[in-house]
Amino acid sequence: MTDEVCMETSETFIDSLLRQLPFDIGTDEFVQNPYRFYEEARRASGPVHRTRSGDVVVLGYFEARAVLSDPRFGHGARTAQDRTGYGVPARTFLLTDPPGHTRQRERVRRAFTAREMLSLRRRIGDVAAGLVREAARPGTADVVADVARPLSARVVGDLIGVPEDLRDRFAQAAALLVRGMDPPGLIAPDTRERIARARVWLARDIGAALRRPAGAGILRALARGADGRPARAETVATCAQLVAAGYETTVGLIGNGMHALLQHPDQLAWLTAGGHSEQACAAAVEELLRYDPPIQLAPRCALVDADIAGTPVPRGTVVLVLLGAANRDPRAFPEPHRLRLDRQPRHLAFGLGVHYCLGAALSRLEATAALTHLLARRPRLTGHPVSYSPARVARSIQSLHVRLDPAEGLRGSVAAER
Fold it and tell me: Is 230 left (phi over 0), alpha (psi -120 to 50) or beta?
């Protein structure tokens, strides 16, 4: 394989690579429960599986940590232009390796200052409280539609500076871009057309926000390059990637996490026994991330000749790290298929190394706030079926109907911590 193969996006290699897995990702059974397939594959192939084409799939936790933290593995897109379809001729840091990745990542990191995060924590808490309060009025609610999606849309919209009247379209575009991460063969033609239009919408909306004289905090930090000159194209591309990754990741975390808690009443009771405080929910989020992460895989490329746990990996080999499988490796997590909130797991839901998710802290804040206020309403499952998004790379529940008590039962624990 060549460097050019490493530079390409999912349209080039993930489509063919995923079809060589020891299980079929195209089935409804996989969408409902991929972890059964991961476990069967790990038992048959071990923690490292070599495909017919010579590429590598990593299913083991320790092997996944090694790949994600090893500078010999990256994206191989050091000179590639933006190939994510956002319509701008700029390289974006999610597809690059150091040193270019380091420069762009640092610009984004500076936008999330301690003061900004404190302000965001308060803002997120207020928004989550209001959304849950409104959702609880009729007694039943959809956790995803009524809480997770509007919360994530408002937070990301505020960060980027998207006007209120464009928030709905903005959120729809972000969700479609995440769907576009899947192999093209698994996406219907009409959906691919909608994804293409969403890319244009998102670039235009972000570009319009950038042109306003008083942009949001993250735009102020990103709008100029390292040399102080305007970096509009790069900023639009970077913000588009942050939106696509951060929006659906948070929605998935909230929906998947709430569903996992409701499926494990013993763990829900354990969590709420102490008053389901914000601190307790923040700790629980880590096990929820391990148990059912919102992003299931991370592609890498061998930049030089390397190896994974003794398996030779020649330069140019594509390496697909299955994060969901690694987080259920019994060598790292006893009883991996059980939700245990007393764990303090060192999971890989947000990756590891230089490409560790920059929005991880923000996603944790949103999930913690949403779960804290939802648990205060004593959620119970209704008879409605739970449906999952058809996406394979991202994993999220489309609808989760629950009964909520109109009266809050938190007894001031959230207010006390805030």
Answer: beta
Contacts (Cβ under 8 Å, ≥6 apart) of 387: 397, 398, 399
Closest CA to 300 of 7, 29, 28, 26: 7
Q: Which long-range contacts (CB under 8 A, 24 or more apart) does 16-24 make?
A: 16/53, 17/51, 17/53, 17/55, 17/57, 17/318, 17/320, 18/183, 18/320, 18/392, 19/183, 19/185, 20/51, 20/52, 20/53, 20/55, 21/49, 21/51, 21/57, 22/49
Task: Report which secondary-structure segment, H or E, holds 258.
Answer: helix 232-263
CA pair distance 217, 211, nearest whole angstrom: 14
pLDDT of residue 412: 40
| Digit-coded pLDDT (tens) for 81-133 | 333 333 333 445 555 656 555 666 666 666 666 666 677 888 899 999 999 99
Q: Read off the pTM.
A: 0.84
